[in-house]
Amino acid sequence: MISRIHEKGFTLLEVMIAMSILAITLVVVFQSQSQSISMAGRARFETTAALLAQSKMAEIEAANPENVVSDSGNFGDDFPDYSWQVDVTETEIEVLKKIEVKVVNDKMTSNNSFRLVLYRIKE
């Protein structure tokens, strides 16, 4: 009589199924991590750009309205990747002028600008 000895271990099919499950799980985890990093970078840009635009707008509001003109520049060594542009235009309402501050991150390739608009009474 031939007796079969049952060896303990995994079959090739079981190992392949386990490896497939592991590969799918790793792909999902890496995609999630990549998306999280992207979202953190975007949130950092939005926060920084908003604060820089508000700072520039506060400078403009503190200035004499007659001295406010279209201009551009950067934020110096503190924020070397960011630049600003101020556009002053007339509006349909004669006593108002539109002041737009645009902050741009020069290192980012897309979604790299933030706009802040103020309507100010001419004096």
Task: Furnish the topology, listing elements before pairings.
Layout: H1 12-62, E1 71-74, E2 82-90, E3 96-105, E4 113-121
Antiparallel strand pairs: 1-2, 2-3, 3-4
Can you offer a commentary on this structure?
The protein is an alpha+beta fold and 123 residues long. The chain has one domain (12-121): 2-Layer Sandwich (Pantoate--beta-alanine Ligase, Chain: A,domain 2), CATH 3.30.1300. It contains 1 helix and 4 strands, in the order H-E-E-E-E. It has one helix at residues 12-62, and strands spanning 71-74, 82-90, 96-105, 113-121. Strands 1-2-3-4 form a 4-stranded antiparallel β-sheet. Strand 1 (71-74) and strand 2 form a beta hairpin.
Keywords:
123 residues; Pantoate--beta-alanine Ligase, Chain: A,domain 2
Structure in a nutshell:
By secondary structure, this protein is of the alpha+beta class. It has one helix spanning 12-62; strands at residues 71-74, 82-90, 96-105, 113-121.
